[in-house]
From TrEMBL:
This is Hydrogenase maturation protease. Gene3D superfamilies: HybD-like (3.40.50.1450). Keywords: Aspartyl protease, Hydrolase, Protease. PANTHER family: HYDROGENASE 1 MATURATION PROTEASE, HYDROGENASE 2 MATURATION PROTEASE.
Length: 155
């Protein structure tokens, strides 16, 4: 294992659920190679196979104010349960990867708290602002320590 992979999860057609994809696209504009994933667990596992570090960005609906960014490091720290617009939740996909022996060396997950997940809605204003700040934070962290996980994002 010798690489870092950055993966944005989400659904562009479900409002703030597109936060991970939007962050990935901004990172790409900043010169960071990224993978976009619509929530397919098999594609997620394939994207991080062989990676020393996998950085995953996804939307969340945990009751925090919209736009709050949270950082989780490792499988045990991931929130479980709740609804997901993906085929499986991120926590479910991670558990499946763990059972199959397909986990990256290290997993870092950033979540952006959403305001709306309505069909056809775009990103809300607080989520759009959070996505822009998160992309800059991740890009800076990756450029400072090539191959290492980025530093925690501010709230």
């Amino acid at each position: 294992m010798s690489r870092t992979v950055v993966i944005g999860l989400g659904n562009d057609y479900r409002g703030d659920d597109g936060a991970g994809l939007a962050t990935a696209r901004l990172l790409r504009e900043l010169g960071v190679p990224v993978v976009e994933n619509g929530g397919d667990p098999a594609e997620l596992m394939e994207a991080w196979t062989g990676a020393e570090v996998a950085v995953v960005i996804d939307a969340a609906c945990s009751g925090e104010p919209p736009g709050v960014v949270r950082r989780f490091r490792g499988v045990a720290s991931l929130p479980h349960g709740g609804a997901s617009s993906h085929a499986l939740s991120l926590a479910d996909a991670v558990e499946l990867a763990r059972v199959l022996g397909r986990m990256p060396g290290e997993l870092v997950v950033y979540t952006v708290e959403g305001a709306t997940f309505a069909l056809g809605a775009g990103l809300s204003e607080p989520v759009s602002a959070a996505v822009a700040a998160l992309a800059r934070t991740i890009a800076r962290g990756l450029s400072r320590s090539a191959g290492a996980a980025p530093p925690p994002a501010g709230r």
